[in-house]
Design goal:
Layout: E1 5-10, H1 15-26, E2 32-36, E3 47-51, H2 57-70, E4 72-78, H3 93-121, E5 124-129, H4 141-161, E6 166-173, H5 179-184, H6 190-198, H7 207-218, E7 229-232
Helix pairs in contact: 1-7, 2-3, 3-4
Length: 243
């Protein structure tokens, strides 16, 4: 008996990941799988949750095995992330290991687990959540390095997998009003006011702004777009990002 087809979203319990899951479900996707460290405070009859520490290779492999034994994953969104702020002086090897595991190791392991189902279907959509910080951001040494690495991975995977009917793209959010953002940029703080002043559209982004970009790349109709980075940043990358 064939496995039910599903879309896998990492970090789907809250923030941008939750918005992506909810938008997929509202769009009529019959099965969404959420892999996250924390259990969601919300539920849906067509959403299945798997708990995993995606910074740990063995835990990620175990979760991937569980998911792919129950579902044929043909669409994958690697959204789970962590900032670990630090400068050249304060960043640690532990910080680097942590974000490398989450932003580079986990996407590769999960993709490898999902590839057989995608190739069997002759169809796949992969969306990696990068960041505007990949272009450079003070006090984000390890974070920006791994997000830039994820963009490089996205472009190479797009080249390797295009012949299998699989597209690979990245969404790079700018200032988005999530719990993760607020931890580093408290409301009313001077640095938060500076960020808001730098946004061309003069408002913070929302998780739903990012989710809509992810759904564009996930659409079966968008098979001629691959290896691209979409900045969802309110214009903060203007004059910085390459055309």
């Amino acid at each position: 008996m064939s496995l039910p087809v599903a879309t896998l979203v990492t970090g789907g319990s809250s923030g941008i990941g939750r918005a992506i899951c909810e938008m997929l479900l509202a769009d009529g996707v019959t099965q969404v799988v959420n892999v996250d460290y924390a259990a969601p405070a919300w539920s849906h009859p067509n959403m299945t949750f798997f708990q995993a520490d995606l910074t740990d290779a063995e835990a990620t492999r175990a979760a991937a095995e569980q998911v792919t034994s129950r579902f044929a994953i043909t669409r994958l969104v690697h959204n789970a992330g962590a900032t670990r702020p630090g400068t050249a002086d304060s960043a640690t090897v532990a910080d680097l290991d942590y974000v490398t595991g989450l932003h580079l190791q986990a996407p590769l392991l999960l993709l490898q687990a999902c590839l057989p189902a995608m190739r069997a279907a002759g169809f796949g959509r992969i969306v990696n959540m990068a960041s505007r910080a990949a272009l450079g951001k003070p006090e984000r040494v390890v974070y920006s390095a791994t997000k830039a690495g994820l963009i490089g991975m996205t472009r190479t995977l797009a080249m390797e997998l295009g012949g299998d009917g699989i597209t690979v793209n990245a969404v790079a959010p700018g200032p988005i009003a999530t719990e993760l953002f607020r931890k580093s940029n408290p409301e009313g703080a001077e640095q938060t006011r500076r960020i808001l002043a730098s946004i061309t559209v003069k408002r913070m982004g929302t998780p739903e702004d990012v989710a809509r970009a992810a759904l564009f790349f996930l659409s079966p109709d968008n098979g001629f777009v691959t290896g691209q980075v979409m900045y969802v940043c309110g214009g903060t990358t203007l004059g910085v990002a390459p055309v």
